[in-house]
Design goal:
The chain is of the alpha/beta class. 38% of the residues lie in helices and 20% in strands. The protein folds into two domains: 2-189, Rossmann fold (3-Layer(aba) Sandwich), CATH 3.40.50; 231-344, Dehydroquinate synthase-like, alpha domain (Up-down Bundle), CATH 1.20.1090.10.
């Protein structure tokens, strides 16, 4: 699925006539204009402080509307989507035009959802500027916003026309943003067993994209296998909300991965050695916290996990096991609650 040199890779997300490329490498943004087709207007959606990767003069004389959304989870909302769609309309955009989302996962989620709803769907190209965005949020077509009741509860599957992962953007990332990406990257270690740490930066990011592309191609709308991409996320999302989003997504995912491993051990699915593997990858290899922080009571965290989008029959977790990582429905809430209680008192 990948080709070209180690300095520039191209991974294809195979979805029939909706397939698209993911370009990975330094200077990859020079491929943006080729993805814009016959569009006349480009809505460039970004945030204050995002690296200025896209030069409007490089977009073939198209009209460019630069739109900024607010920072912080409170702006990942239906109100923001409405504001963007109003701005698209004011710019005279139609179904032949393109939204270009430049930023982290919040920008691609929000701008992608706005593109999916405006005129019942216009094209979007994602230019993620964070490691988390490159290996997770920008690839696969998931878009959405939060409600007070939970993260990403309103959204749609809307595949982009293409994704550009220009690694030059990573040089500006603060340490915490790098940690957030590392939480998602740790997840990919357990989905395939690949030793990602042995790869160079371009190959490592491209391999994460390949893994996600393969899963998305087999299950675009999360009817089954795609749920494995949420490994570690059931507790992670609850921790984010309970902490008032002071705990960042990737940090929470790292904690959620270790908790999911401990839960799998309690259910007899894996042994202590496999739990130790999770702690080593998350804690030692990527330098992330592995213990559940005291950001909410057991009852509060259980309530939040029960609202998880994967929940079908009781609590649903993605868990490691003899057949690998897979979604498991109907997990006994008392086992989860007891494990949480012991984790919070360690």
């Amino acid at each position: 699925m990948a080709g070209q040199s180690a300095e520039r890779r191209s991974v294809r997300v195979e979805l029939g006539d909706r397939s698209y490329p993911v370009l990975v490498g330094r200077g990859a943004v020079d491929g943006l204009e080729a993805l814009l087709g016959a569009s006349r207007t480009v809505a460039l959606v970004t945030q204050d402080g995002i690296p200025d990767l896209v030069d409007p003069a490089s977009l073939g004389g198209r009209s460019v509307e630069r739109l900024q959304i607010g920072r912080g989870e409170e702006h990942k909302s239906l109100d923001t989507v409405g504001e963007l769609c109003s701005a698209f309309a004011a710019a005279g955009m139609n179904r032949g035009d393109v939204v270009v989302a430049v930023g982290g996962g919040m920008v691609t989620d929000v701008a992608g959802f706005a593109a999916a709803t405006f005129h019942r769907g216009i094209d979007v190209v994602h230019v993620p500027t964070t490691l988390l965005g490159m290996i997770d949020a920008a690839v696969g077509g998931k878009t959405g916003v939060n409600l007070p009741e939970g993260k990403n509860l309103v959204g749609s599957f809307w595949q982009p026309r293409g994704v550009i992962c220009d690694l030059d953007a990573l040089a500006t990332l603060p340490e915490r943003e790098v940690r957030c990406g590392n939480g998602e990257m740790a997840k990919y270690h357990f989905l395939t067993g690949d030793d990602l740490a042995d790869l160079g930066e371009v190959d490592r990011i491209a391999r994460c994209v390949e893994i996600k592309a393969e899963v998305v191609a087999s299950d675009e709308r999360e009817g089954g296998r795609r749920a494995v991409l949420n490994y570690g996320h059931t507790l992670a999302h609850a921790l984010e909300i309970a902490s008032g989003h002071e705990l960042a997504h990737g940090e929470a995912v790292g904690i959620g991965l270790v908790f999911a491993a401990e839960l799998a051990r309690e259910l007899g699915r894996i042994d202590e050695g496999r739990v130790a593997d999770h702690r080593r990858v998350v804690g030692e290899l990527y330098g992330l916290d592995t213990e559940v922080p005291a950001v909410g009571s057991v009852d509060r965290l259980m309530e939040l996990m029960s609202r998880d989008k994967k929940a079908i029959d009781g609590l649903t977790f993605v868990l490691d096991g003899p057949a690998g990582v897979e979604p498991v429905a109907g997990v006994d809430p008392s086992v989860v609650a007891d494990l949480l209680a012991s984790s919070l008192t360690r």
